[in-house]
UniProtKB/TrEMBL annotation:
Coiled coil: none annotated. The chain crosses the membrane at residues 20-40, 52-74, 86-106, 112-134. Keywords: Membrane, Transmembrane, Transmembrane helix. It comes from Alkalisalibacterium limincola. GO terms for molecular function: mercury ion transmembrane transporter activity. This is MerC domain-containing protein. It holds the Pfam family MerC. One of its GO terms (cellular component) is membrane.
Amino acid sequence: MQVAALLQRIGDRAGITVSLLCGIHCAALAWALTAMPLVWFSQRLWGIPLVWYARLELALVLLAALFAAVGLGLGWLRHRGYGPGVLGLAGIVLLSTVLVIEWHASRWLGPGLVLGGGLLLVIAHVWNATKVAALRVSLERARR
């Protein structure tokens, strides 16, 4: 049981971190779209192909999904509450939708959906960690 609790705790903390990174990346992408000539110039200057930005987004979504599955799944095994899992799933759906439909060309819709998905994941992980901590406290009180 200790290993599952540790994995759940690490999963939630890593999920919060990755979701926040996803939101920061989204805000930076919205800024980069408005400054596209500068991005194009820096690509020519530094030789960084734009395909790496798409790979970074895919990697962030996959990491967010992995940490959501681990953190929220193991949390559910402990507290049996569906709320954090539903919020996390909604966040992953929003993030995946943007990648699949490629709404990045839209100035506000793509970044807005990614930011919303990232925020839903952060809220889900914080809610999950809170429910697990409350369960831990109530179990400790019951032992006394």
